[in-house]
Amino acid sequence: MKDGEFTDRAAIVTGGAKGIGLAVAKRILENGGKVALWDVDDEGLAARVSELGSPPGLVATTVDVSSEASVSVAHANTVGAIGPIDLLVNSAGIIGPTVPTVSYALPDWKKVIDIDLTGVFLCSKTIAPGMAERGFGRIVNIASIAGKEGTANAPAYSAAKAGVIAFTKAMSKEMLNTGVLINCIAPGPIETEMVANADPKHVEIMILKCPMARLGTAEEVAAMTCWLLSEECSFNSGACFDLSGGRAVY
Ligand code: NAD
């Protein structure tokens, strides 16, 4: 990826108020792009914009990615603020409760699926048509190794992330001749608030399972994401890339 890769590009990063989404947004900005941080956490958004010094080309939009109406309004406002969108990163997500399937409550199941899977569908279906009209677009969906191997006591999260991987493959095939390339990343445990809030014993087990014996960083996810958003990524679509410190997940 060349320096200034995203000059004249406009990006939407969902879940941009923290963690992986924020790291991706910073990297796009550093490389000349305009970025809309999309998040449900309005206080977090305001804090991030102020911490980043309100640079030109950065906007923040409060949105619930699981609501079609909210995504539609956010999209219209964002295009009004930074122009037509070239790049979309679907990073918004929640892990949900850590509960075995037999005790998992239906409202919790629905909430995780609505945000982690339906949110990716709604943002993609709303934003991709404009990309296709202009003949260029890149979409990166942040899945998880949980979607490939299944994580015990996180049935909804695992199912949602498996859905994101399959959705990426399906939609990418529909868009192949439009210049819109759609890929996803399956990270292992990454050092963000999502993992900081997990049971420390569980985090220890995650590290033991990693051949590199550590958590990944949001910056490492951002580096791979930004390559997939770049023009250098020209012969990949519908792929899922592991980012897991050598942990092989099939
Ligand atoms: P995080 O909790 O730090 O950030 C997630 C962001 O999504 C938050 O800012 C949150 O407010 C936002 N969000 C939640 N619900 C939303 C909604 N309905 N609408 C809009 N925004 C919403 O998490 P993270 O670690 O940065 O995770 C980012 C993505 O990466 C998630 O999809 C997660 O599943 C995935 N992932 C994370 C890890 C990890 O170990 N951290 C590993 C694999 C995959």
TrEMBL record:
UniProt GO MF annotations: oxidoreductase activity, acting on the CH-OH group of donors, NAD or NADP as acceptor
Family matches, as Pfam families: adh_short
Alphabetical UniProt keywords: Oxidoreductase
GO BP annotation list: fatty acid elongation
Domain of life of the native organism: Bacteria
Coiled coil regions, renumbered to chain: none
PANTHER family per record: OXIDOREDUCTASE, SHORT-CHAIN DEHYDROGENASES/REDUCTASES FAMILY MEMBER
Family, as annotated: Belongs to the short-chain dehydrogenases/reductases (SDR) family.
Name of the protein described by the UniProt record: SDR family oxidoreductase
Source species of the chain: Nisaea acidiphila
